[in-house]
Design goal:
This protein folds into 2 domains: 203 residues, BirA Bifunctional Protein, domain 2 (2-Layer Sandwich), CATH 3.30.930; 51 residues. Helix content is 21%, strand content 27%. The chain is globular, with a radius of gyration of 18 Å. By secondary structure, the chain is an alpha+beta fold. The chain has an 8-stranded mixed beta sheet with strand order 1-2-3-4-8-7-6-5. The chain has a 5-stranded antiparallel beta sheet with strand order 12-11-10-9-13. The longest helix is centred in the middle third of the chain and has 19 residues. The chain starts with a strand and ends in a 12-residue tail after the last strand. It is built from 5 helices and 13 strands. Helix 2 packs across helix 4 and helix 2 crosses helix 5.
């Protein structure tokens, strides 16, 4: 494990990198809980990144986290226990990810043909293609925000090639992963204290005001993925980070704390695109 020399706006935070690991989430938990180990210094804002994962996973049980080794950003940021009480934490992180991608393009004097959007609650999208996912988990020591961001991968397994994309594909050039990580950490630090996070989330919300299919309830893999689905439009997020979804013909939107939505005839519950 090596130290990454990057700018980090979180006071005292460190950043580590390793070649291959089971999961950055698991390693971050170990580091955050370490007391008598040389690497015990892992304060809030610290990062553990990997070139490849052997047991990466998505938010939905049963989904694997797929990523070509050495091409993408696979990392976990450790946040203090107080962050768990922040309303809409996963959404704030998603807003930061969208902002970092847009700012990177601006600094690179490039532009996206289609702007990055946040698919509630945890995916970064370009059009109908997924470029990143976020997995937030709380523990006794704090919150662990795991992120997989397709950066320079330009080819995907057959089952994912019609649903996945990367920043390199969208920009038409390779991206500097270290610079992108720095921009994300800066955007994250701002988003955690930003009173305008809801407005920014609404502006970035994927399929906002467009026809979509929403499946309320806990997100799971397996049969029955279309049962209970609601046709309507995502309207925004509320003060808790819940999705405001307006069913077709309904007078007003209803807030949903859990669920998943998509643009097609069925909600996407296939393998993770990352």
């Amino acid at each position: 494990m090596e130290t990454i020399p990057i700018r980090n706006p979180f006071p005292g935070a460190v950043a580590y990198s390793t070649s291959t690991i089971e999961s950055t989430q698991g390693e971050a938990r170990r580091l955050a809980g370490a007391r008598n180990l040389p690497e015990a210094r892992f304060p809030p804002g610290s990062v553990i990144a990997a070139e490849a994962q052997t047991a990466g996973r998505g938010r939905i049980p049963g989904r694997q986290w797929q990523s070509e080794a050495g091409k993408n950003l696979l990392f976990t940021v450790f946040l203090d226990a107080g962050s768990a009480s922040l309303p809409g934490l996963p959404i704030r992180i998603g807003v930061a990810l969208c902002s970092a991608a847009s700012l990177y393009a601006e600094k690179a004097a490039a532009s996206f043909a289609r702007q990055p959007k946040l698919k509630w609650p945890n995916d970064l999208m370009f059009g109908d293609l997924k470029a990143a996912g976020i997995l937030c988990e709380a523990g006794p020591s704090g919150v662990f925000a795991g992120i997989g961001l397709n950066c320079n991968q330009v080819a995907f397994p057959r089952e994912l090639e019609s649903r996945a994309t990367s920043l390199a594909i969208e920009l038409g050039r390779e991206v500097d992963r270290r610079v992108l990580l720095e921009l994300f950490l800066e955007a994250l630090a701002d988003s955690l204290v930003d009173r305008e996070w809801r407005r920014k989330a609404d502006e970035r919300l994927w399929k906002r005001g467009e026809s979509a299919i929403f499946l309320p309830g806990a997100a799971v893999s397996g049969p029955g993925q279309g049962r209970g689905a609601i046709v309507g439009t995502p309207e925004g997020v509320d003060e808790a980070g819940s999705l405001l979804f307006k069913g077709k013909g309904a007078a007003e939107a209803i807030a949903y704390a859990t669920g998943e939505f998509g643009a097609g005839k069925q909600v996407d519950r296939g393998p993770s695109a990352l």
